[in-house]
Amino acid sequence: MFKRFFVLIAVLSLLFCVGFSKMGAGLYLGSPFGLYGRYFLNSSSFVDARVGYSGFLTLTADYLLYKPSLVKFEKFVFPLHYGAGATVGVFGSSVLLGANFPVGLNYAFMDGKLDVALEAALGITVVPYFNFGVTGGVSVVYYFD
């Protein structure tokens, strides 16, 4: 029952994101591997959501600050993002609850329609046990008009 509810919430979250103009959807290649969505609240912050699988099903959502021109290398600009979020996971009959603190660098292609980001996050699990960990990956996001 809980798995079905979790999958329903995850799918509705991604569908909700697709309807906005400053929204992008794509893949998260890392830990956990899965579908990724991003919605810019303004020019300096965005929220993201990820439905993934890394031995168990997870739903992660973050609020991130976005610094568009903080990291520059010659003529290339790599916007920095950092923030905090929460993770809910389901494995077997157990539920995982945790917090995560991601930081990453972005690079946009195709006049800003495609974005690739390299990200690392400190994760803290609080349920069913207390634990620290580090995750990371690459997100590839296509922005809708």
Short description:
By secondary structure, the chain is mainly beta.
Note the main attributes of this structure:
mainly beta; 145 residues; Porin
Overview of this protein structure:
The chain is mostly beta strands and 145 residues long. The chain has a single domain (2-143), classed as Porin (Beta Barrel). Helices cover 12% and strands 71% of the residues. The protein contains 1 helix and 8 strands. An 8-stranded antiparallel barrel has the order 1-2-3-4-5-6-7-8. A hairpin with a 2-residue loop joins strand 4 (57-73) and strand 5. The longest helix has 17 residues, at 2-18. The mean pLDDT is 85.
Question: Would you spell out the secondary-structure blueprint of this structure?
Answer:
Elements: H1 2-18, E1 23-30, E2 33-42, E3 45-53, E4 57-73, E5 76-91, E6 94-109, E7 114-127, E8 131-143
Antiparallel strand pairs: 1-2, 1-8, 2-3, 3-4, 4-5, 5-6, 6-7, 7-8
Order of helices and strands: HEEEEEEEE
Report the CATH topology name.
Porin
Tell me, what's the shape?
elongated
Q: Number of DSSP helices?
A: 1
Distance between the termini: 37 Å
Helix amount, in percent? 10-25%
CATH class: Mainly Beta
What's the total number of strands? Answer: 8
SSE-based structural type:
mainly beta
The main sheet orders its strands as 1-2-3-4-5-6-7-8
Mean pLDDT: 85
